[in-house]
Design a protein that fits this description.
Flavocytochrome C3, Chain A, domain 2; 12% strand
Amino acid sequence: MRGWVEPCGCTSEPLGGIARLARVVLDSKNQYGLGVSLIDGGDVLFDSLKPTNPADLCQENARIDLLLSTLHDLSCIGTFPGQYDDVMGVDFRDEKLKNHKLTNLTESAKNGFITGKDPAFRLGILFLDEANASSIDAKATNLKNEGAKAVVVVTHQPRSFFFAKKAAMPDKAEMPHVDIVILGVEGEETPPVAQKADSEGPVFVSAGKQGQYLGLVEFRFNKEGGWTLDDRQQKRQLRISLLTQRITTFQAQMNDSSDPTLKEFLKTKISDAREELDELAAQKDAPVTDRNYLVASTIALSRKIDPNPSFDAKLKAYESKIPELVAQCESKIACPEAVANEAHFVGAETCKSCHNAAYEFWKNAVYSVPATDEKGNSIERLSGHTKAYETLAEKHKTEDRSCVGCHTTGFMQPGGFCKVKEVGSFKGVQCESCHGAGSLHVATADKRQIKRAVPEATCRGCHHVPHIPTTESFNYEQRLTKILGEGHGALLLSKIKHQAQN
């Protein structure tokens, strides 16, 4: 989950949220009954390895409690904590797990255990680290001898541990008696396809990060013996994801283009993609009855999934408490002070006195983008750096400290603001968000005292998953065309357009 209880709302179609997760899990339990087990693979508590700021602790505690209570209420059998769970220390982590009656499965799963309420089908669970990798297959064999119909291994090792190292470390890569390996903390943005290391080995699966997807493995038991991967559904999901992203890209290109020929071409491409999407949605797979098989898939927790009402109510209750929680911790902090001879933030209104043309261009650089509403219906919404704070206001998140930093300027910085209600004139993504604190430049008019060229890394400080769909979906030069213009990087804009045409 990487700490997320709901999607941030910055993307055109944000994914995730515990209320949608609950809907899918509970629907699965209703469909399959006793045969459903929910396991957390790790990295659930925090989204960063940086120490938590004291000003954030009140909200963070409430968020973690909501997250863990949700897993408990969904009958999660336990968790395998990763490094993102230990940011506040293992004592903090273990106390939180204990309070919500969630079991740390790491130690017990090193030798393995069997779980499952349905006596006809029980799963063996193992945890693999580098120290016990060579003995995993023997332990899997023991579990099957004890009655496990299939064996699931959870690991925090990267995918490369099993694939790239196989030639050099065959004893650690070959696991013919293991059926599934869950890569619990794999940092993929979009879940990769389920894959086998070899024909006799297990299937490797992961569900991405930030709680945007739910990883689902279905075991369909028809007779005694091994398991075959049925990847028809998975391949179809990947194609649907690709076509959906393609439609979004083509639509954005249409909006940006004034060439009627290109617009007509893109319109045809969009129509073709939507037609194929309809065909894929209508496809049904014939059941496999002559062998055991497993289906590994990921469910995108999109807005088209209705949130579970009970869990959505808990989420809304948490959101309503955020202002009170934030104020409680902010009352105990001191804001960073400006230091003599060091740059501090001054705000866009100060920049305006010398850079009026750039200021006016920034103020008016607002454009329409395709998006979805809370029900997943297609809409258009306004976007742009100057609109950034307004998008928080629309979502009632102006006092959510996990959001404010990327929608304002100078948050927690000298000369800026450190308490959410004191944002003042620092609303929106202003000049200094990109060019750095401007006080020394203002005092001296020295161009060396300001960052003129803005590297891509600066933009990606905020434009990263889950605030964008994928890393590749943020095209640096394409985004520059939205924020450059007359009085603000016109020469660079002309070079970018020239390169694009050639």
